[in-house]
Design brief:
By secondary structure, the protein is an alpha/beta fold. It is built from eleven helices and nine strands. It has a single domain, classed as 2-enoyl-CoA Hydratase, Chain A, domain 1 (Alpha-Beta Complex).
Length: 255
């Protein structure tokens, strides 16, 4: 399988472990990384030996969101957003029918948080930080998070995360239903892996049928498409261009 060197994929004991491996940039996602993630989920879907996907990350942070330089390049290109690797990943994640378990340490920004809404079990560090500052970049939510986040934590808390740019820590993520457990950082991956192995040992078809009953895949995909249309318009807006320029002037993307 052709994957990015910044996305590591390993299979064993019924698990397909996907590790974001760009720790020097806090695992900010590039186009190539999204493409590798799509390939990994396609592999997991097609391989009957894979029963569970485990999402993890190298370094001190889970994911600092999308690499802003890629956003700028996307805005300047003629490529339709709905055919981009970003939105291919979002659709693959929303439609995936096997359990996904996440291990989160450090910062989870933007899609670093919204992708967790598609995970079935989430284990986080007590001092992890979750934020979705889309409005600060003059953008809008993605990954069906405009539907899923208010449903999970309530409208007012979701709006504060989206529009005020507020963040929450790992303990608060558990309290509001975003995560299963908050642990010392060194215990997060072992706990997530243990849970994934427990799931992998259960009747696979029953687990998948349970997930399907609990998640409205068609509705999530429809919301992703609706968000994508607005996101594409916002990406080309003067507000977004000014926000990107300010961000890139202030600091290097992904740092």
């Amino acid at each position: 399988m052709n994957t990015s060197t910044q996305v590591r994929v390993e299979t064993a004991s019924g698990l397909l472990a996907i590790t974001l491996a760009r720790p020097d940039k806090k695992n900010a996602l590039t186009t190539q990384m999204y493409r590798a993630l799509v390939q990994a989920f396609e592999l997991a879907s097609a391989d009957p030996a894979v029963r569970v996907v485990l999402l993890d990350a190298d370094g001190g942070d889970f994911c600092a969101g999308n690499d802003i330089a890629d956003f700028v390049a996307m805005a300047r290109s003629a490529q339709a957003l709905d055919s981009s690797d970003v939105f291919r990943f979002l659709r693959a994640l929303a439609a995936f029918d096997k359990p996904v378990v996440a291990a989160v340490r450090g910062r989870a920004v933007g899609i670093g948080t919204t992708m967790l809404l598609h995970c079935d079990l989430v284990y986080v560090a007590e001092d992890a930080r979750f934020s979705t500052p889309f409005v600060d970049l003059a953008l809008v939510p993605e990954a069906a998070s405009s539907l899923l986040l208010p449903a999970r934590i309530g409208h007012v808390r979701a709006f504060a995360l989206f529009a005020l740019g507020e963040s929450i820590d790992g303990r608060a993520a558990v309290d509001c239903g975003l995560a299963n457990a908050a642990l010392p950082a060194e215990q997060v991956t072992p706990r997530a892996r243990a849970a994934a192995l427990t799931l992998a040992a259960k009747p696979a078809q029953a687990v998948q049928a349970t997930k399907k009953l609990m998640r409205e895949h068609a509705r999530m995909l429809a919301v992703i498409e609706a968000e994508g249309r607005v996101f594409a318009d916002r990406l080309l807006s003067s507000e977004a261009q000014s926000a990107f320029q300010a961000f890139m002037t202030r600091r290097t993307p992904g740092t």
